[in-house]
Amino acid sequence: MSRLPANATPEETASKTPTAKHKFEGHEREILSFAFLHDNVHVVSGSHDDTIRKWNCDTGRPVGEPWKMQGGRILALVLSPDGKTIACGRVDGSVQRWDTDGNMIKSIWTGHTDWVRSLSWSPSGGHIASGSDDGTILIREAESGKVEVGPIESNQGYVRSVAYSPLGDRIASGGDNTICIWDSNTGKLLVGPIKDLVYGVESVVWSLDGSKLYSASDTFARVFDSFSGTLLHRLEHDHLLTSIALSPRHNVLACVGISGIAHLWDTESHKPLGQPFRQEDHKQLRCVSFSQDGQYLAYGGHDNKITLWIVKDIAPQLTETASPMQSKTPTPKYKFEGHEKDIRCFVFLQDNIHIVSGSLDGTMRKWNCDTGHLVGEPWKGEGSTILTLTLSPDGKTIACGRVDGSVERWDTDGKMMKNIWKGYVSWVQSLSWSPTGGHIASGFGGRILIRETESGKVEVGPIKTNQGDVRSLAYSPLGDRVASGGDKTICIWDSNTGELRVGPIKDLGVLVESVVWSLDGSTLYSASDRFARLWDTELHRPLGQPFRQEDGRHLRCVSFSRDGKYLVYGGDDNKITLWMVQDIAPQLTVRTPVSKIQDITQQETQPEPPSSSFLNVSSTHSSFLTLLTGLS
Known about the structure:
Elements: H1 10-14, E1 22-25, E2 31-36, E3 42-47, E4 51-56, E5 67-68, E6 74-79, E7 85-90, E8 95-99, E9 104-109, E10 116-121, E11 127-132, E12 136-141, E13 147-153, E14 159-164, E15 170-175, E16 179-183, E17 189-194, E18 201-206, E19 212-217, E20 220-225, E21 231-236, E22 241-246, E23 252-257, E24 261-266, E25 277-278, E26 285-290, E27 296-301, E28 305-310, H2 311-314, E29 334-337, E30 343-348, E31 354-359, E32 363-368, E33 374-380, E34 386-391, E35 397-402, E36 407-411, E37 428-433, E38 439-444, E39 447-452, E40 458-464, E41 472-475, E42 481-485, E43 489-494, E44 500-506, E45 514-517, E46 524-527, E47 532-536, E48 541-547, E49 555-560, E50 566-571, E51 575-580, H3 581-584, H4 596-601, E52 617-620, E53 625-628
Antiparallel strand pairs: 1-28, 2-3, 3-4, 4-5, 6-7, 7-8, 8-9, 10-11, 11-12, 12-13, 14-15, 15-16, 16-17, 18-19, 19-20, 20-21, 22-23, 23-24, 24-25, 26-27, 27-28, 29-51, 30-31, 31-32, 32-33, 34-35, 35-36, 37-38, 38-39, 39-40, 41-42, 42-43, 43-44, 45-46, 47-48, 47-53, 49-50, 50-51, 52-53
């Protein structure tokens, strides 16, 4: 092979035949599935030889002995979102789970009557979807294995591929010449069946924003609009395709097939990247994936090996995508330090300058967003740990819920009002003020009380929610409904009678840590996630990249300032972190959506959306954003 000059252009370099970094050899039969671990160093593969093996990408060597267990050939592998658990589907119709060190979790799931060819973990990690040659899809609770949705009769003959959407609300399935998109909570068919595919659909994968769906079938990789099912593009190959994968770091689609050839495609221009690269023995390729950091690409197939490539060697002209998820990492403006224990809650005051925070150390503190300094001394009440805070619609009063079952009210200068509400039988974990200011809803021990604000008289309740702990409460903008989030469910209640209006709605997460209403009351947002993110609520697409605590500790609460300028979160590092919203998502333009509250109250200012404790979702009036935060 000729040597390229040192100053070779990207185009010249791209024409050079790439060389694989490693071939992982050890399986005795073909490899149909594998997964990159989150450390970007290790790969775990499953084979028709009935074993799982772990490999080191730096050394090219196996790690430890093969993982063996009854169940026959392994057809599918998927890694949990937290990177700690691997689920595998076998030819006997079972699903097993393993930790990443090769220890099998005892419970083996049965339920399918034929081969389990595909698995997908929900983004929250709460559920696993499985697709089988019996033509059904099962959605299970990830810890217990309990079937919560299904069996969904796909009418697709066999289900070769299933994939959760990035938001977890939909599941795509590929089968016998068709693609279907299902509601992951109900199993209802949303889109499809999408037809006119010549052969079976071997692989489906979502775009990062969930707006598109990619498929591998016959000799084409196809791109569909995920909401309408409309075919947008076809990427033609000269061989039958078996698997596709999207890079998490670049606008790149990888395709492999039965001829042993792999292709990379630019997902924006829909043109090839670099030249095709292939197996030396031309044997079938059956699976392909990128590492989490986008550095590596690997494939496996009928040569019984995993072949590892450095993506830049295949397509040196590649640049980091400019998609919202990969924009420049923002830097916080301030960190407010002073609390001695975890911060579970805080509120922005209506001057857009000050924040009041509550902590497990039993105190509240007031902070200045312009200076980053503490204002005055800590506020100390009569109770213990503070779990939730809420600001009155007129901006003059703060209510706080404590672990001793009491609710206190304070003015914004730190003076506590005499009347302390007691009598709760458990921790008060959530509070929400009605839009008029006349009532406060409180959540404790699976129950809700609605009190008259001035007297503290209970006017509605206790409402028995059957939700375990009520982690979050939110009055609707019109005040006629109260949403509650708790143990895997969301409920919507009539605020005047306490009657259940909607639900229980099943959520993907283990706990629904926060709920918040859209400004017009038509939409309810919930949170069970691992990162902090900004989302465009109209396009349902991410804005900027996820951002997180430097030390990886839990985030517990979040809110926007009323003018939309600041975003703040707090958590287990005992600090409040202040961000400039424009630093996180510089592409934002200020908008002023119309709220029905203005029509009813004739007020120029709208009440601030509630800032619930622990995991939180918060809306900003000026930018029409939603923030999802969680365990970082």
